[in-house]
Amino acid sequence: MLNNSNVFEFLIVFMVSFLFVYNLTPLIIKLAYKTNFLDNPEARKLHKKATPLLGGLSVFIGFFILVAIDSILNSVPRTNFATFGYLLGALLIMSVGLFDDRFGMSPFVKLFFQLLVCFIFIHTNELYYLFGSSWLSVLVIMFWMTGLMNAFNFLDNMDGIIAGMSGILALGFYAICILTKTPSVPDLNNYVGLLSLTFAGAVFGFLPYNFNPAKLFLGDAGSMFIGYFLSTMGILTGKLAVNSMQSNVFYLLPIMMLSFAIFDISLVSFTRKRDGRRISQGGKDHSTHRIGTAMGSIKITALIVYLINSIIALIAIAVLQMKSVELLVLSTAIFIVSFLFFGRKLDKVPIVVPENQLRIKNGELRIKN
């Protein structure tokens, strides 16, 4: 299993994953065209022509194969059971996303499978008592995971956005794994390190094909898999941080790490509810759309999102390095205030409301920009 102190192994795991997905993705693009697995333009979407929709499969295959091989070659029974459950959950959520991309799926059916994936993760990683009470632990973890799977599904609305930011966050989680390394949980450190590096390599190998103008989209399969990965890494690195710092306050660390995705879904939910539109219906009113309108460029928008998430990850790492509970609480409060201010500014940016976002009330169409 991966040794966090070995830089050579770090480079091997990351680079093999990167090269595997980078070379696999052109084959996936051809497969998408051959099977007509394409995303067609709609009013709520930015692209103007049919684009292959199997990017999530490419990232998943690279991640799955390389994690499985490493686990087989470095057998640690207790960790391998957790890895098996992790890969099973990843396979299930990716498959649900693929089905949804191809045929569509009821939100309630999708939620059922998301909850099933949460249960598999909780059971195989022995997290029933993460927060003391089993009921509290299960409810909090399920709310966290389903919320983030849907948040990243929402946020996958512009070329390269979540592929790039998730790779940055994965490297951030690896850094947290290094800083929280303790003799009491070496297997967990190695397990989280392996998952983080393999995912980072896989998603960065995919990014050149997804950056604007995208040759391939992630689809629901990719966005929900990314949400699954980041939400679970938040839980596991939170557990590592709490164990290392001996303070439950350090569960705030993963909230800080994933604060941009939380901000985006909060902004969308609030503005749609306020303006009388359906929260669950897609539209061009996300934080990324608003930044894109202000900047006039999809590429610049992606780079801004990368910068924001890089700053978030670096601050979280610095706070952990300083081992200060007070600084963690203060930083979290500053992030909340900053995002509230940012949200108010973005709310003033005009948005285009497509027909599927309109709501008829009292016989009149209501549109608020």
Notes on the structure:
This protein is an all-alpha fold and 369 residues long. It contains 13 helices and four strands. The chain has a two-stranded antiparallel sheet. A hairpin with a 2-residue loop joins strand 3 and strand 4 (364-366). The protein is globular and about 55 Å long. Mean pLDDT is 89; it is low at 359-369.
Write the layout of secondary structure elements.
Layout: H1 7-34, E1 38-39, E2 51-52, H2 55-73, H3 77-103, H4 107-124, H5 134-155, H6 161-179, H7 186-210, H8 219-245, H9 252-257, H10 259-274, H11 287-295, H12 298-322, H13 325-347, E3 359-361, E4 364-366
Antiparallel strand pairs: 1-2, 3-4
Spell out the key features of this protein.
disordered C terminus, 4 strands, 369 residues, two-stranded antiparallel sheet, mainly alpha, 13 helices
**Rg for CA atoms:** 20 Å
Q: Give, in spatial order, the strands making up the sheet with the most strands.
A: 1-2
Which structural class best describes the helix and strand composition? mainly alpha
Q: Roughly what is the average pLDDT, rounded to an integer? A: 89
Distance between the termini: 52 Å
Shape: globular
The share of residues in helices is over 70%
- Residue windows where pLDDT falls under 50 for at least 5 positions: 359-369
Overall strand count: 4
Order of helices and strands: HEEHHHHHHHHHHHHEE
The count of helical stretches stands at 13
What share of residues are in beta strands?
under 5%
Largest sheet: 2 strands, antiparallel
